[in-house]
Design brief:
Number of domains: 4
CATH class of the largest domain: Mainly Beta
Number of strands: 47
Largest sheet: 10 strands, antiparallel
CATH superfamily of the largest domain: Immunoglobulins
CATH topology of the largest domain: Immunoglobulin-like
Oligomer: single chain
């Protein structure tokens, strides 16, 4: 099964709660939400692109449409229908103060599915986010609530399952609630790293040290460091008994037998989930697809319980003596691995000398070039960034500005920054209305329509890379998988969306003049035949209107028989 969770996942989150805190959560209150044994494809806190994994990914044997069951008594308090993210999701609120979430579903149980469908047709809108009162859809423990699937931001059939504090909406590690998932395997350590912390973890970056295993203990040769101020990091996974690479639940860092850092992945808020980027070596993760876990807190990190003055993991070497280092890793079941090594300050190297404009944690900054301006908030970065910004001619045929180079796509930013770009020629009012900004951040691109501030377009974004102002006068379109006027015997109609630049941001289909419910599946639009278009109902006209990011609108008409 190929799903997103098959990458190497390393987890980070500091908590003052020690392992015994598991006992604070109700044990065996929640049941397995599937009728097959719980097998994990990813655990709570696993590293995803720009966010923690906020629940468990439960394997469904590479199948869809398995029964999904209520984990405990309660009521359906919310459902979501969305293109990405959770896809189709159900939230159940329970009387013990917790809410469970079930995501990437194909369909809801009949009564709920009918309600959602009626709402979609009434509002003429496929995407939905509906909340319910306690008496509308009560459910009993073990009751069928949905069928599993592969909808939303999923790359393979599975069930995403979360447990949240109902009042705070913080996600809590479901493995703390006593589910029966056998695990007798200790975490595996494959990498050890040190960082020169006199300027930033980003420069000069990670220094790798070979790890050896002898029996149940991991070791390295004596680590010779060239900076008096350093921090450490580790690459590790927990195989459990499942075969998938899971994240580390708990870690401790000791120097000369004194605890200087620890974390436990107990709970995370969706407001803080992006702070995963301050817990890992973001450069190695985005550039090399390698998860390296910091065993220290970065100066711009504000994640709850993350930064503790007396346990920040920063090491200051005031002599050239050999110092003992021990790293302890544990899973929820207490399976433990240890790495023991020694570090010694050797010859001190020169400190990094910034060549750009330094952006510091907890300080705002505005940087300009001839035709662009970028403004960072005080919460913009986790660690000092030697920020370099420049311009070059755009190779894009639709480009109407220089390409603005914003440092590097391998440096994270915490929140949205503001970018203003000046076009390289005077635009008409109509052209201004069709202007968009293309962001290229190495692994992907994003097109954003901004607003005009005088002669500059202003946009907000949260990743670095390159940005170019484009003029998009192209029309979006959809293509059908049948010839006009032919008889369609399949159970669905599928239209494939296409744009030259950006995305289809609005889609509307009308069958013989009435709105028809198409679901968005990645870049396609799918209608499942229902009573709105029964068999033997003759010739039908389907009118489809699409709008792209720039605001260009296209209307197409198709015909078919049913």
């Amino acid at each position: 099964m190929k799903i997103l969770c098959k990458a190497i996942f390393i987890i980070c989150f500091i908590s003052t709660i020690a392992l015994p805190a598991q006992k604070n959560y109700p044990q065996n209150y929640f049941r397995n939400p599937l009728n097959i044994p719980m097998q994990l494809a990813a655990n709570f806190g696993a590293v995803r692109s720009n966010h923690f994994h906020m629940g468990l990914d439960l394997r469904t044997n590479s199948q869809e449409n398995l029964s999904v069951l209520a984990a405990a008594d309660g009521y359906v308090s919310r459902i979501k229908v969305e293109r990405y993210g959770f896809g189709n999701a159900v939230y159940i609120t329970h009387p013990n103060g917790y809410t469970t979430l079930y995501a990437h579903l194909n369909t809801y149980y009949d009564k709920l599915d009918e309600f959602v469908k009626e709402r979609q047709y009434k509002e003429e809108k496929w995407e939905q986010d509906i909340t319910f009162s306690p008496g509308q859809f009560p459910v009993a423990k073990g009751q069928l609530i949905a069928l599993s699937g592969n909808t939303g931001g999923s790359a393979g059939p599975h069930l995403h399952f979360e447990i949240r504090d109902t009042k705070t909406e913080e996600c809590i590690n479901p493995l703390l609630f006593g589910f029966n998932i056998p695990d007798s395997i200790s975490p595996t350590i494959s990498g050890f790293y040190w960082y020169d912390r006199r300027f930033s973890t980003y420069e000069p970056g990670a220094n790798g040290v070979a790890v050896k295993k002898a029996g149940g203990l991991y070791t390295t040769d004596v680590v010779q460091v060239s900076s008096p101020t350093i921090s450490l990091a580790i690459k590790a996974v927990d195989k459990a008994n499942q075969g998938f690479n899971l994240g580390i639940y708990h870690a401790e860092l000791l120097m000369d037998d004194r605890l200087i850092y620890s974390f436990s992945i107990d709970q995370v808020s969706y407001d803080d989930t992006r702070d995963i980027n301050g817990c890992i070596d973001y450069t190695r993760f985005t550039r090399d697809k390698m998860s390296i876990q910091h065993l220290s807190s970065l100066p711009g990190m504000t994640l709850k319980n993350y930064s503790q003055p007396d346990l920040n993991g920063l090491i200051t070497l005031q002599d050239e003596d050999i110092h003992n280092i021990e790293i302890v890793l544990k899973d929820v079941n207490g399976n433990t691995s240890r790495l023991k090594t020694k570090i010694r300050l050797n010859k001190t190297s020169d400190k990094v000398s910034p060549s750009g404009k330094v952006v510091m944690p907890n300080e705002g900054k505005t940087i300009t070039t001839e035709n662009a301006e970028i403004s960072f908030s005080k919460n913009a970065v986790y660690d000092a960034v030697n920020f370099q910004m420049s311009e070059k001619s755009s190779p894009n045929a639709d480009g109407i500005s220089n390409t603005i180079i914003l440092q590097s796509p391998y440096i994270p930013v915490r929140d949205d920054y503001t970018l203003k770009i000046k076009p390289n020629r005077k635009l008409t009012g109509e052209e201004k209305g069709k202007a968009i900004v293309l962001f290229d951040y190495a692994s992907d691109t994003k097109v954003i329509k901004g607003k005009w501030d005088g002669d500059r377009m202003e946009v907000q974004f949260n990743r670095l890379g390159t940005a170019t102002l484009l003029l998009d006068q192209s029309l979006p379109s959809v293509s059908q998988g049948w010839k006009d006027g032919t008889l369609v015997n399949s159970s669905t109609l599928r239209l494939s969306g296409k744009t030259k630049i950006g995305d289809i941001v609005s889609f509307r289909a009308e069958l013989d003049g009435k709105w028809l419910r198409f679901a968005r599946v990645k870049d396609d639009f799918v209608y499942v035949f229902d009573e709105k278009c029964p068999k033997a109902s003759g010739l039908h006209t389907l009118k489809v209107t699409t709008i792209n990011t720039a605001g260009n609108t296209n209307t197409q008409t198709f015909t078919f028989q049913r």
